[in-house]
Amino acid sequence: MAMATANKLALLMALLAASSYGALSSPELRGLWTRAERAVEAAAELFVEEDLGAPVIHALRPLVGSADPDPLPLGVPWDSWRLAVETGNIIDWKTVPAHCEQAIVKYLLGDQYRQDSKVVADEAVAYTEGFKLRGNDAEKEKLVWLFDIDETVLSTVPYYAKHGFGTKPLNFTSLKEYVLQGISPALPETLRLYSALRSSGIKIVFLSTRKEQLRNITEANLRLRGFSGWFKLLLKPDDCEGTAIVYKSGERKKLQDAGYVIVGSIGDQWSDLIGQAEGKRIFKLPNPIYYTP
Amino acid sequence: MAMATANKLALLMALLAASSYGALSSPELRGLWTRAERAVEAAAELFVEEDLGAPVIHALRPLVGSADPDPLPLGVPWDSWRLAVETGNIIDWKTVPAHCEQAIVKYLLGDQYRQDSKVVADEAVAYTEGFKLRGNDAEKEKLVWLFDIDETVLSTVPYYAKHGFGTKPLNFTSLKEYVLQGISPALPETLRLYSALRSSGIKIVFLSTRKEQLRNITEANLRLRGFSGWFKLLLKPDDCEGTAIVYKSGERKKLQDAGYVIVGSIGDQWSDLIGQAEGKRIFKLPNPIYYTP
To answer: Which residues form the signal peptide (chains A, B) (predicted)?
Structure first.
């Protein structure tokens, strides 16, 4: 790691420690936070560029601690905003409220995002282990589990870390450039669920709104991060402009009509999970960075 | 207020302040927390008995502050457990994990529960105000909004405050005794939504799994707490043993079949909201105390 970046990380750690004790709450110290944010971006970039194999977010984790977000002086409190987003009470939002930026950085780079994901994966693994594979072999052959891709098995947080952590309007072009690098890290808790399913005999189907034109790089990225042996990788036709909820409901319906039984389904958006043919159980991973209708 | 109770409240405040700084994390100090809990129970009882008009939970609110829950040493962290419960990832749970008791007390009696509820109510009010009353008068007459009752418009937290805040198995008999007092306080954020709807022309329907035998006391309790002018109060037949999700789906379906349009629906359980005839938009209030299938 370059010395300059190590210094930036030290600054970042000090600022996060200070802010968790309220020392950064006065407006004149906001500039310091901006410097800290730049350090996070530099760090995220560095980890991606230097070590393609390591999970970027979680490699950063021990460096920034797990301090609770500060109380936010303006607008909706971060905690309540996040809960309302995760429960689908706040919908159709375009960006994370600007005053939540400090809190979302801590959330994503601290312990909490990983812990929240771990509890979801633990529940899904327990459900999978308890799920009895009834019926004859032909029936067992028809059991499938659906995975969304972005923010479910692969993370685009390294991209968002360099673009305001969701507080700025999304630039699809630059996000696509990131995705095309094929280096999105694995979300390790979902990888654990994936591995449990691989040994259960339930078939794995990826269902993503990534377009067909991204098939090769998506397959390569999944394999790079330890995902293999899937049954189907369903991507959106290049000319399809429907919403995620409509597209994914339709694909689930097709699976069901072809005789498949959807044992479980996991995603970071409600639009990954609800609509038609929802299957026997759904698992909603956290995602406070962006909203997909 | 009796002096002895004032002293208990002072002890409680001191203990909560101490625990929020980590002073109570060592096991040998657990006994102190038990004393604090008894003080909370005494306080809840007192407020209910002395002032029927005041909302119990929120009268207590300023006394206990809004400190974030401490990190929990054992089991699933409180924050992640609560998020998983509120998003429906953890289902069919019987009691709040014992190690979350301190956190749930702070959650319910501190600022967070009210803040979380406020954000949901704000979204629902904004949606209501933006909802265009289209069509002719006959069509407008058919617009309805569904409210659940317990933990949606009325609170049973004063009961749970005296019975372990959800960490102990529910005693239906003693809960029913509490409900039969007819003094459950209003949840003020939902009352605000109720008032906004009353002036919108959208009809209000209560849909609760309280049994018919509780109709009189339920009506009296609602009126005592400022709810009036509802269109229907749908209670579960005394001999009906179906789950909430089945019963409520059936009642919504009947409303829909009778030509009503469900503009919105609000409840604290997913079983209040999903299933059949969900309506145009659903709002999930927080409830980490108990789970209703």
So the answer is: 1-25
Per-residue pLDDT band for B271 (boundaries 50, 70, 90) equals very high
Distance between A45 CA and the closest CA of chain B, angstroms = 28
Q: At what angle do helices B30-50 and B3-20 cross, to 10 degrees?
A: 130
ipTM of the predicted assembly exceeds 0.90 = no
Question: Nearest CA of chain B to the CA of A285: how many Å?
Answer: 9
pLDDT at A162 over 90: yes
| pTM, full prediction | 0.77
At B104-134, the pLDDT tens digits run 999 999 999 999 999 999 999 999 888 766 6
Q: Chain B contacts of A120, Cβ < 8 Å?
A: 84, 89
Between CA B178 and CA A109 the distance in angstroms is 45
* Residue of chain A with shortest Cα separation from B274: A274
Tell me which chain B residues have a C-beta less than 8 angstroms from the C-beta of A90: 119, 123
Is the separation of the CB atoms in A179 and A210 below 8 Å? Answer: yes
Do residues B206 and B154 lie in contact, with contact meaning Cβ atoms separated by under 8 Å? no
Q: How many CB atoms lie within 10 A of CB B199?
A: 8
Predicted confidence (pLDDT) per residue in A266-281, tens digit: 999 999 999 999 999 9
**Inter-chain touch B284–A88, beta carbons under 8 Å:** yes
Residues of A with CB under 8 A from a CB of B: 66, 68, 71, 76-77, 79-81, 83-84, 86-90, 112, 115-116, 118-120, 122-124, 282-284, 286
Q: Give the pLDDT score at A139.
A: 83
DSSP state, residue A240: -
Cα-based distances in Å from B188 to A288, B79, B185, B192: 27, 24, 9, 6
- At residue A2, the pLDDT reads 40
Q: Which amino acid is at A116?
A: D
Question: Any residues with CB less than 8 A from the CB of A24 and at least 6 apart, and which?
Answer: A15, A18, A30, A32, A33, A70, A102
If you write DSSP's letter for every residue of B11-27 in order, what string do you get? HHHHHHHHHHTTTT-SG
Q: Work out whether the CA dihedral B96, B100, B101, B104 comes out positive or negative.
A: negative
What was the pLDDT predicted at A78? 95
Mind telling me how many Å the CA of A7 is from chain B's nearest CA?
A: 29
* A79 chain-B contacts, CB cut-off 8 A: 112, 115-116
Q: Does the structure show a pLDDT above 60 at B203? A: yes
CA distance A112 to chain B (A): 8
